[in-house]
Amino acid sequence: MQNAFPRPVLSVTELLRSVRDTLERRFPLLWVRGELSNLSRAPSGHRYFTLKDRGAQVDCVMFRSRAAALEVELREGMQVEAQVLVSLYEPRGRFQLTVEALRPAGLGPLYERFLKLKEKLEREGLFDEAVKRPLPAHPRTIGVITSLAAAALRDVLTTLARRNRAVGVIVYPAPVQGEGAAARIAAVLATANARAECELLLLVRGGGSIEDLWSFNEESVARAIRSSTIPVVVGVGHESDFTIADFAADRRAPTPTAAAELATPARLELLKNLEACVRCLSREMRRRLQYAMQSLDGCARRLVHPAERLRRSRESLTQLRTRLAFALGHRVHRCAAQLERLQASLAGLDPTAVLGRGYSITRNAAGEVLREASQAREGERLFTTLAHGSLQSKVKKRELL
User: Fold this and answer.
1) How many CB atoms within 10 Å of residue 315?
2) Residue 298 pLDDT more than 60?
3) Residue 229 clears pLDDT 90, i.e. is over it
4) Which distant-in-sequence residues (6+ apart) come within 8 Å of 201 by Cβ?
5) Smallest Cα–Cα separation from 202: which of 180, 176, 240?
6) How far is Cα 234 from Cα 135, in angstroms, rounded to an integer?
7) Sheet strand arrangement including 381-385
8) From residue 270, how far is each of 137, 189, 198 by CA, in Å?
9) CATH class of residue range 12-106
10) Paired residues of 51 in beta bridges
11) How far apart are CA 392 and CA 71, in angstroms?
12) Distance between CA atoms of 149 and 101, rounded to whole angstroms?
C-alpha cells in the first residue's frame, strides 16, 4: 500500500544544509588534538590543512582573521590542539572543521596561563604604545641581562663589537630559566636601574620550549620591565616565539642578535651619516662665505676714503657758512626794517612830539596833567613843559567854561 503522506523530496543543497545545521547544533565549540599535514596558505590569507592521528584525518580551514592572531608558526608534522566548529562545506559536500584558535599540543595549561596574563596586563594598559620609551639613537653604554653561559650573550657581544666597538657593554648576570629565574630577572632589572650605568638594556636568551622560556612569561618580569626608567629591548627565542616580556618591552626583537642590531647603529652607517653632515656643513659654509663676500662688495662700493669724506665735509661746511651768512644778513636786514617801522610808530605816539607845533603840557605839583581849569586852585604853583624848556607859574585867576 502506498504511503498516504509521502516524505518531501529534498534538493542536494537542502539536504546538505540540514546536515550542516545538525552537526553545528550537535557539536558546539570544542578542542581537538592532532598532527598538522598538507599545510597551505591561500592568497586570501586563509589557512588550509589536515588534522590527523593514527586512525583518521579531517580537513580544516582557518580563516584569515583567525590566522592573523596566531602566535606560533605552523609547521608540517606539528602536534596541535585546535578549537573548532564542526561543519559541512556545502559546495563540495565535504565534512570539515572551522578552526577558531590553535596552540601547540601538550601545552594547554601553560598556554592558557599565558593568554590570561596577557589579557590582564593588556587591560591594565601595560602594553600600550603610549607608555613605550623611545630608544636612544646613539647609546654610549648598553647593559645586557642574560646568563653568562648563554650562547645568546656571545651572539650579542659579537654583534655589538662588529657594529660599533666604541659602545661600552655591561653584563648583568641572571638565570634565564628554572625555578626562581623570573624573580632574579626582575631583581637584576631593578639593580641595573639603580646603578644607572647605561642608556639601554637588552634582556635576551636563546630559543627553547615554552617551558624553557616561561620565566619571561611571568608577571613580575613584565612589571619590572615597565618599571624600568631605562628603555628595555627584549630578544628572546626565535622569531616565532612570543613571551609576555616581548609585549611589555619598549621594543621587541625577534632574536638576541636582532636585539643587538636594534640597540646601536652600525659604525659604517654612522660614518655615512657623518660624511653626509660634513657635505651639508661644507655647502652651508660656502653659501655663507659667498653671502659674506657679496655683502663685503656692497660695503666696499659704499665706502668713501677719509680724504674724500673730509673734502666733501669742507665743501658742505663752506656751503653752510655761505647759507648762514646769507640767512644772517637777511635776518639783520629784516630786523632793521622792522625796527625802523617800530621807531616811526613810536615817534607818532610820542606825546612830546606835538609840543613842536606850539602845544604844551601843564602839571600840578603832584605831577598830574591838567586838562581843565577847574583842576587848578588859585595860588597853586604849576609846571608847563614846552618844546624847548619849561615854565613855572602861579595861578592868579581861573576862568571856568
Assistant:
1) 10
2) yes
3) yes
4) 142, 143, 144, 145, 189, 192, 228, 230, 231, 232, 233
5) 176
6) 12
7) 361-363, 381-385, 390-394
8) 11, 29, 20
9) mainly beta
10) 36, 58
11) 145
12) 37
The hierarchical CATH code for the domain 114-131+139-264 is: 3.40.50.2300
Q: What pLDDT shows up at residue 108?
A: 59
Q: How far apart are CA 360 and CA 346, in angstroms?
A: 19
Residue type, 208: G
The sign one gets for the Cα dihedral 242, 243, 247, 253 is: negative
Helix, strand, coil % in the chain, rounded to nearest 5: 45, 20, 30
Euclidean distance between CA atoms 237 and 384, whole angstroms: 142
Q: Could you report the per-residue pLDDT of 21-55, keeping only the tens digit for each? A: 888 778 878 889 898 889 898 888 899 999 998 88
**Can you tell me the distance from the alpha carbon of 287 to that of 266, in angstroms, rounded to the nearest whole number?**
32
Q: What is the largest CA-CA distance in the chain?
A: 194
Report the interhelical angle of 256-263 vs 151-163 (nearest 10°).
30
Torsional sign, CA 112, 116, 122, 127: negative
205 within 8 A of 256, measured Cβ to Cβ: yes
- Read off the pLDDT of each residue in 211-227 and give the average, rounded to a whole number: 91
The helix (run of H) or strand (run of E) holding residue 234 is strand 232-236
Q: What does pLDDT average to over the chain?
A: 86
Confidence band of 157 (pLDDT split at 50, 70, 90): very high
Do residues 51 and 64 make contact, with C-beta atoms less than 8 angstroms apart?
no
Cell of 319: 656751503
Residues 397, 347: Cα–Cα separation, whole Å: 36
- Beta bridge partner(s), residue 81: 33, 103
* pLDDT level of residue 356 (50, 70, 90 thresholds): low
- One-letter amino acid of 7: R
| pLDDT recorded at residue 355 | 67
- Separation of alpha carbons 342 and 356, rounded Å: 21
Is residue 196 scored above 90 in pLDDT? yes
pLDDT at residue 263, rounded to an integer = 87
Q: Are 60 and 49 in contact (CB under 8 A)?
A: yes
The C-alpha cell that represents 273 in the structure block: 651619516
Nearest C-alpha neighbor of 135 from the set 234, 255, 204: 234
Q: Record the pTM.
A: 0.49
pLDDT in the model for residue 87: 84
Q: Which residue has the cell 647603529?
A: 265
115: enclosing H helix or E strand: helix 108-124
